[in-house]
TrEMBL record:
GO terms for biological process: establishment of mitotic spindle orientation. The keyword Cytoplasm applies. InterPro entries: GPSM (IPR052386), TPR-like_helical_dom_sf (IPR011990), TPR_rpt (IPR019734). PROSITE patterns: TPR. TPR repeats lie at residues 150-183. It comes from Anhinga rufa. It comes from the Eukaryota. It is found in: Cell membrane; Cytoplasm. Keywords: Cell membrane, Cytoplasm, Membrane, Phosphoprotein, Repeat, TPR repeat. This is GPSM1 protein.
Length: 226
């Protein structure tokens, strides 16, 4: 501020916002991220503007998750305050998405689609969540980003469960499992086996359910995860 560096001030405000978000001070975080947004717009800095929109989305997303943790409910059955917070997150991610499309930033589009999928899932809009996660998946494949691809499969599996499409969920969870093994991520592998066990229980294929739950158990024991 002393040297009149507006872009520097914008970036510093954004960093403050992100730090306050991690500290759980969501309302103060929004104020700082908003300053990042305002200055970026005033300076015609499109990249800064996109980043600020994404960060504000993240703050509302984190706040919504934080508020809903205190109530162990299924996605979609949310108190008004939580719903409004997640809707705000969604709005900012949408604005970020249209801007990064304009900028032609595919990686940033991928991140926006993933977060839109997650917020819509929490809001109980499962069909919308699926559409966003499919976009996320396509971009992850484009970049050969196996970790993001794995997350997309997992999220697609979760959303299909709530639509009662258990067979489709099982297919997505199998892809999740395959990638978890490729990535040598045992914790995620165990999680995928657990999801498959539950999905086959819902499909009333109990033999297979047992098979996957046993795999989950073996990895949990290996990891010493009580």
């Amino acid at each position: 501020r002393t040297i009149g560096d507006r872009i520097g001030e914008a970036k510093a405000s954004g960093n403050l916002g992100n730090t306050l978000k991690i500290l759980g001070q969501f309302d103060e975080a929004v104020v700082c991220c908003q300053r990042h947004l305002d200055i970026s717009q005033e300076q015609g800095d499109k990249v800064g503007e996109a980043r600020a929109l994404y960060n504000i989305g993240n703050v509302y997303h984190a706040k919504g998750k934080h508020l809903s943790w205190n109530m162990a409910q299924d996605p979609g059955y949310l108190p008004q305050e939580v719903k409004e917070t997640l809707q705000k997150a969604s709005e900012y991610y949408e604005r970020n998405l249209s801007l990064v499309k304009e900028l032609g930033d595919r990686a940033a589009q991928g991140r926006a689609y993933g977060n839109l999928g997650n917020t819509q899932y929490l809001l109980g809009n499962f069909s919308e969540a699926i559409a966003f996660h499919k976009e996320r998946l396509a971009i992850a494949k484009e970049f050969g980003d196996k970790a993001a691809e794995r997350r997309a499969y997992s999220n697609l599996g979760n959303a299909h469960i709530f639509l009662g499409r258990f067979d489709i969920s099982a297919e997505y969870y199998k892809k999740t499992l395959q990638l978890a093994r490729q990535l040598k991520d045992q914790a995620v592998e165990a999680q995928a086996c657990y999801s498959l066990g539950n999905t086959y229980t819902l499909l009333q294929d109990y033999e297979r359910a047992i098979e996957y739950h046993l795999k989950h158990l073996v990895i949990a024991q290996e990891l010493g995860d009580r």
